[in-house]
Amino acid sequence: MSTDLAIRVRGLTKSFKDHQVLRGVDISAPRGSITALLGSNGAGKTTVVSILSTVLRADGGSATVNGFDVDARAADVRRSISLTGQFAAVDEILTGRENLALVARLRHLPDAGATAIEALRRFDLLDSADRPTSTYSGGMRRRLDIAMSLIGDPPVIFLDEPTTGLDPQARAVVWRMVKELAGHGTTILLTTQYLDEAEALADRIAILHEGRIIADGTPAELKRLLPPPTVEYVQKQPSLEDVFLVLIGASRREGAGGGPPSAAAGGSESGASGGAA
Q1: Disulfide engineering: 14 pairs with which of 22, 150, 192, 193, CB 3.0-4.6 Å?
Q2: How does DSSP classify residue 153?
Q3: Which tens digits make up the pLDDT trace of 89-143?
Q4: Confidence (pLDDT) at 247
C-alpha cells in the first residue's frame, strides 16, 4: 500500500440479509485531500463510512485507514479518525462548552477547558458557550457537532452528509472549515448528495450508484466524460450534475455488467450532447 494514501478500499462488499448494499467498492484518498463520495439516497454511502470507521464489518474486500487495516487494527483506526454522522450527536442537556470539554477529556487532552474555548471560537459559537445546546438552532448544533469531531486533530475525518438541513450561512461556515482542515493536512472523506458541494470542495469525486463506483476522478476529469459542447455563440460547459445524471442513466441501461468508466480516459459514448445558446 502506498504510504501517500490515507484511505484505501478494494472490492468492498456488504449485504443486509438478502439486500446487497455494496457490490465491490474501490476508493482511494491521498493524505491531505478531500474526497467526495457522491450518490443519491440509498446508494451505500453511509455503509462505506460505517465500515471505514469500524462501526460495521464488511462481508468482503479490504480497507485501510491511516495505514491500519479496519478489521485487524480497529483500535488504531479509531484513534486515527473522527466521524460526524448525518445527525448532530450533541448532548442537549450540556452546554456547548461542556460538550466540547467532555470530548477533550475523552481524548486525554491536557487542558480540556482551553481546547473547548478554542473550538467555540473557531466555529463562531463563543457567544453561546454556556447555553444548553437544546436552545441551539439546527445550524448551531451541526457546527458544534463538527467542532467536537475535530478535537484532538485526528488525521482522518469522515463527514457523512454534514450540511444536510443547514441554511446557506451555516453551510458556508462548514465549507470554509472543511477547506481549512484539508489545507492543514487533514484527510477528509465527505459523503454528500449535493452536487454543488462536491464540486466546490472535493479534490476527487467518486460516484456511487447501486453499490458500485461508476466513475472516479477530479471534477475536471469527470466533466470530460461528456462530449464537448457545440459552440455557436455561447459555449455551455457540462456541469457535474450533467455528468452525474448521464452516468446513472447509463448504469441503469447497462445493468450490473462492466466496470466504471475511467475519468482519465476522456470522452464517453453516452450519446449526450452539449448545449448551445
Answers
A1: 22
A2: -
A3: 789 999 999 999 999 998 899 999 999 999 999 888 999 999 999 999 888 888 8
A4: 85
Handedness of CA 109, 110, 111, 112 (dihedral sign): positive
pTM for the model stands at 0.77
Distance (Å, rounded) from C-alpha 15 to C-alpha 86?
A: 21
pLDDT at 262 over 70: no
What integer is the mean pLDDT of 5-33? 95
Q: Give me the residue spans of the domains in the chain.
A: 5-90+136-265
Burial pattern 217-245, b for ≥16 Cβ within 10 A else e, equals bebebbbbbbeeeeeeeeeeebebebbbe
The C-alpha cell 473550538 sits at: 119
Cα 89 to Cα 27: distance, rounded to the nearest angstrom = 27
CATH superfamily of 5-90+136-265: P-loop containing nucleotide triphosphate hydrolases (3.40.50.300)
Please give the Cα distance from 198 to 29 (Å, whole number). Answer: 15
CA–CA separation, 66 and 187 (whole Å): 9
At 24, which amino acid appears?
A: G
